[in-house]
Every structure is written in C-alpha cells, then in structure tokens.
Amino acid sequence: MAAIANKSSFVKLSLFVVVVALVGVMSATADTSCNSIYSRLMPCMGYVTGGGVTPPTDSCCSGIKGLKSGLKLQADRQSACRCLKDLGTRYAGAIDFNIVKNLPQKCGVSLPYKISPSIDCSTVH
Asked: How many CA atoms within 13 Å lie on the side-chain side of 90?
C-alpha cells in the first residue's frame, strides 16, 4: 500500500514539475519573440528616424522578410502586432509612421496588416 501511495505522489509531483516547466517556457517564448522582433527591426531605425530619405538597408529588409516568414499562425501575427505596437509606442516621438507603414513595401514584403499605433491586434488574422 505504501508503494502505491509513493508512486501516486511521485506521479503528481512529476506532473506539477512538467506544468511549471511549460509555463516557464511559454513565458520565455513570448519574451524571446518580442526580443527577436526588436532585434530584426533595429537595422530599420535609421531609415524610419532619418525621414526615409535613403532606401532601407539590406539588413533592414532582411529583418522584415525574416519577420514575415515567422508569422505562420494567427497567434504569431497577433503577437508580432502587439510587439510592433509596443515598439511604436516606445519610439513614438522619433519615428514617422507614414514612413513605417510603407517600409515593408519598400523592401518588397507584404505584411498581413498595417503597422500603426492605433491597430487593434485582436483583429489581425
């Protein structure tokens, strides 16, 4: 009987450890996702803060193309939208959103939504 109780306790403890580990991984993934988006788009900051006078750099366009390739699921697109919206809020005084919204097109990329500080990311499909 004691062996069954110990086995049951071990199974419960194991399940608890797995759940805690999964919650930690899911939280880390969300943070990494935004950090990844930010690092992909940082090469574009010169373009969007410099008035869009010169064409975007190759590294900027590569970042945008890489961003798009990672947006397979609706949840990915909504998460990226929230990250972009947060990034736009952080740099609101420094960037021109008319330049930002045309940046994907300048790089030959069609994103599934417009980059805008007023977008409702829950509506992104």
From this structure: 9
